[in-house]
Specification:
By secondary structure, this protein is of the alpha/beta class. The chain contains 15 helices and 11 strands. Strands 4-3-2-1-5-6-7 form a 7-stranded parallel beta sheet, with helices on both faces. Strands 9-8-10-11 form a 4-stranded mixed beta sheet, covered by helices on one side. Helix 10 packs parallel to helix 12 and helix 13 packs antiparallel against helix 14. Bound molecules: magnesium ion (MG). The site of magnesium ion has 4 residues, from helix 7.
């Protein structure tokens, strides 16, 4: 874990930390904008990035006073460039512009809220250029954990998780030394189908899978929560972020989503972090660390939670979780294959072209067959990602 460093500003420069928000129109981006709006004395939004939603991006930039915006999609970006006037934020577009936003000299903090493996390049750029990275894009660690961690170390960057479980682990780990940690316990809500059996899930619709009981999130991660694939990805995320072997990571189902994760130390003490299920909390923690930023809301009231329960995950009904442990143990390109297959299969499910139970079945098959490389470079990871997307699409055709 890198030591805290106080950001210092040269004389005459705005003392506030410059912030880039990648994925500014998504759910984590929205939570980040809420926090930035409340923390104007400490942070200065410099550039907001979105994939395609020009209207929402422009509205967000006006709301927080960001002078620059980036649209990742070059066609949509070019169309918007024609429409903006001299009083609008400065617009850049295309993949290069996304990378430039992540490594811009006036950016100190990158809130990385892009969804999917598409966020990897920007995470690596931010890591190499020594930013504080509030990392909500767990896929960067799932796909390229060792590369990202090394890039951050070499670039002098700090990786802080914006994932409620990992933010909880990060906080709980402060209670002891790394060599005093026995195991990490990730909590899972269990999603909308907790308690169901496979025969109950044969005809699940996208709308049913998108109805998460405790968290409001984007569509892919919500479906991933229903299959438990999200927890599978989080096992891999924790493995690389905290450098803990998968054998020392466990998952427990905790439907109330109040205990966000736990760390067991060698003396038997278990330190848990609790709080309301609200993404603004992990955002606040990542932006403020090593300080705590004061928040007016939401507040925790123990009386609202008379019963907090824990149960083992049902790996029979939700076999995706096992794939996460398998990919975490194998390392190499396994995370890239798992993630790309899942992104593709979930998109097919959301389009009504794949049955719910077939998501994990197809992903397991593609993971098992993928051309494994033990020590991949970025080109190997990209190749496996592309291969897995094609193979998953073919496998979806075959089963539908
Ligand atoms: Mg999470």
């Amino acid at each position: 874990m890198p030591e805290p460093t106080a950001p210092t500003a040269p004389r005459g420069r705005d003392p506030r930390q410059g912030v880039a928000v990648l994925g500014a129109t998504g759910s984590v981006g929205g939570a980040a904008l809420d926090v930035l709006e409340q923390e104007r004395a400490r942070f200065r939004p410099v550039v907001l990035v979105a994939a395609t939603q020009g209207d929402a991006l422009l509205a967000a930039a006006r709301r927080v006073g960001a002078p620059r915006i980036v649209l990742a999609d070059p066609v949509v970006g070019a169309a918007w460039a024609e429409r903006l006037g001299p009083d609008d934020p400065e617009l850049a577009f295309g993949p290069e512009a996304v990378r430039a936003a992540a490594e811009a000299p006036d950016v100190d903090v990158v809130v990385q809220g892009i969804t999917g493996a598409a966020g990897l390049e920007a995470s690596l750029a931010a890591a190499r250029s020594g930013k504080r990275i509030a990392l909500a894009n767990k896929e960067s660690l799932v796909v390229a954990g060792p590369l990202l961690v090394r890039a951050a170390r070499e670039g002098g960057a700090t990786l802080l998780p914006v994932d409620s479980e990992h933010a909880a682990l990060h906080q709980a780990l402060r209670a002891g030394r790394p060599d005093e940690v026995r195991r990490l316990v990730l909590t899972a809500s269990g999603g909308p189908f907790r308690g169901k059996k496979r025969e109950d899930l044969l005809h699940v619709t996208p709308a049913e899978a998108l109805a998460h009981p405790t968290w409001t999130m984007g569509p892919r991660i919500t479906v991933d929560s229903a299959t438990l694939m999200n927890k599978a990805l989080e096992v891999i995320e924790a493995r690389w972020l905290f450098d803990v072997e998968p054998e020392r990571i466990e998952v427990v189902v905790h439907p109330q989503s109040i205990v966000h994760s736990l760390v067991e130390f060698v003396d038997g003490s278990v330190v848990a972090q609790m709080g309301p299920p609200d993404m603004r909390l992990p955002v606040r923690y990542a932006l403020g660390w090593p300080d705590r930023l004061e928040a007016a809301a939401p507040r925790f009231d123990a009386a609202d939670y008379a019963r907090l329960t824990f149960e083992p995950p049902d790996t029979e009904t939700f076999p995706a979780l096992g794939l996460g442990f398998e990919a975490a143990r194998r390392g190499g390109t396994a995370g890239a294959a798992l993630n790309a297959a899942d992104e593709t299969a979930v998109a097919r499910f959301l389009a009504g072209e794949l049955a719910f139970l077939d998501i994990t079945r197809v992903v397991a098959d593609v993971l098992a067959r993928h051309p494994f490389v033990a020590e991949p470079d970025l080109a190997d990871l990209r190749a496996v990602d592309a291969w897995a997307r094609t193979e998953t699409a073919l496998a979806c055709e075959a089963v539908s």
